[in-house]
Amino acid sequence: MKVLIVGSGGREHAIATSVAKSKHVDKIYCAPGNAGIAAVAECVNIGAMELDKLVDFAEENAIDLTIIGMDDPLVAGIVDRFEERGLRVFGPRKNAAIIEGSKAFSKDLMKKYHIPTAAYETFDSPEKALAYLETSKYPIVLKADGLALGKGVLICNTLEEAKAGVKTIMLDKQFGSAGNCLVVEEFMTGREVSVLSYCDGTHIKTMTSAQDHKRAKDGDKGLNTGGMGTFSPSPFYTKEVDDFCNQYIYQATMDAMKAEGRDFTGILFFGLMLTQDGPKVLEYNARFGDPEAQVVLPRMKNDIVEVMNACIDGKLEDIDLQFEDNAAVCVVLASAGYPEKYEKGIQITGFENFEGKDGYYVFHAGTKATEDGIVTNGGRVLGVTAKGATLKEARANAYKATEWINFSNKYMRNDIGKAIDDVQQK
Ligand code: AMP
Ligand code: GLY
Question: How close is the Cα of 99 to the center of ligand 1, in Å?
Answer without folding.
Answer: 16
